[in-house]
Amino acid sequence: MPDRRLQGPQRLLLGAGFIVLGEFCFASMGVGIRLVSGELPNAMVVFGRNLVGILLLAPWLLRNGLGDLKTAVPGLHLLRATAGISAMYCFFYAIAELPLGEAMLLKLTAPLFIPLFAMLWLQERVTGLLWVALGIGFAGVVVILDLAPDTAWGGVSLVALIGLLGGVFAAVAKVTVRRLSGSEPTTRIVFYFALIGGLISAVPLAWEWQTPTATALGLLLGIGIAATLGQLALTRGLTLAPASRMGAFGYFSVIFGAAYGWLFWDEPLTLSLLLGTLLIAAGGLLASRARNGVRVRGPREGSGAYSRSG
Questions:
Q1: In angstroms, rounded to a whole number, what is the distance separating the alpha carbons of residues 147 and 129?
Q2: Does the global pTM surpass 0.85?
């Protein structure tokens, strides 16, 4: 629960601090993914992240109680988990193959797709300002797709397209969570994502299993810890300040990712990366602001550029 003793400016400052901390954790997770991907296949990394996350969340789930796990919408839980895990596969692959700053930026394209899915599924009204915001954001996406290495299909990177597909899956997951939140308690949503996500990510191990070394185990543990701490920090930040006020701070993961890439792998900080970041950030923030006053049919929402699927 947010501390009621904090004044407005203090709450905003502390909330921003938690958001930045969360993005630092996600960028640090990206470093771990990049390092361990040289030894383990993507399926192992995704499963390891989910397994560690489940183990870390288990005490919290037990302490708060699972309540009644019976649900009237099992299909929505399955859709949310499937989309979230699919996004994870795409993002982890992009992190392993792309410059870290670009991979972090592609993770933040989900807000550009959310209005489209919300319009088709939740009957949200798309305003003229929102269309402008999406146009700006997708212009940034084009810059990043042209910037990425290993280009194909007329100069567009296949790896970057996979990262962008992760943004599509993440948007589906977020809109589904929004639909679920109208009738399902948070604990139940978290439980079913952990359960279904863990089962889905275990399936590819039948043909992708590789016994990890002690170093790889340590990295998988670090990835799971960083991801979980990032989730907790973002959640805490959102309890202190409105998501619409915190959106800009979600793009700190690009800054941290680019800094890590430059420090550890000598990845250049290019003007194209800066331009793509500014366009995607401007589009995402403007889209969030444009949607802030739109009345939605159905459940409530916690919008923002940094809402996570996993």
A1: 28
A2: no
